[in-house]
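Example S7 (structure tokens).
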């Protein structure tokens, strides 16, 4: 079987096959056959976990199959390109893809070093929380995003 290339992080979604029985020490005879694995969808969103929970409750996503938690990443909305480049060089930050080239939204793994440097760098910034959401299906993800960004899609066409 050919090895699959991972999806580019730019999509912010990861599709995976997840076993329903995750016990690593279970008897191989009792582990579910691959045909019973389920496909899940994992995405990062620049919103708080409270906002993500609100949207999930609004569209009635099943709470036992939808996992929402704070991401290991912290987002920074910066005022200029030079601050963004310094953050990228110093802490291996990545730029969140947007259609607006004048928007410098960077994300980096949470760290006291990053927080201390951002406090002392003298640049203007806004901290943006990033929520990690694991959906039971791609359809759940699409309905979540439709509520989150209603202006993005109209009749299947992206409007942004």
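Recovered sequence:
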């Amino acid at each position: 079987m050919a090895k699959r290339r991972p999806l580019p992080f730019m999509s912010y979604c990861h599709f995976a096959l997840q076993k329903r029985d995750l016990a690593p020490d279970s008897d191989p005879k009792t582990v579910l056959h691959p045909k019973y694995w389920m496909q899940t969808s994992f995405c990062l969103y620049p919103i708080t976990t409270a906002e993500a929970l609100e949207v999930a409750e609004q569209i009635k996503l099943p709470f036992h199959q939808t996992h929402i938690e704070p991401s290991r990443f912290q987002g920074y909305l910066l005022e200029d390109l030079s601050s963004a480049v310094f953050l990228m060089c110093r802490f291996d930050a990545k730029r969140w893809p947007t259609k607006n080239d004048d928007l410098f939204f960077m994300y980096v793994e949470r760290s006291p070093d990053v927080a201390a440097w951002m406090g002392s760098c003298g640049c203007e910034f806004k901290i943006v929380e990033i929520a990690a959401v694991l959906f039971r299906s791609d359809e759940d993800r699409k309905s979540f995003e439709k509520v989150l960004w209603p202006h993005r899609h109209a009749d299947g066409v992206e409007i942004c």
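Notes on this example. The radius of gyration is 19 Å.
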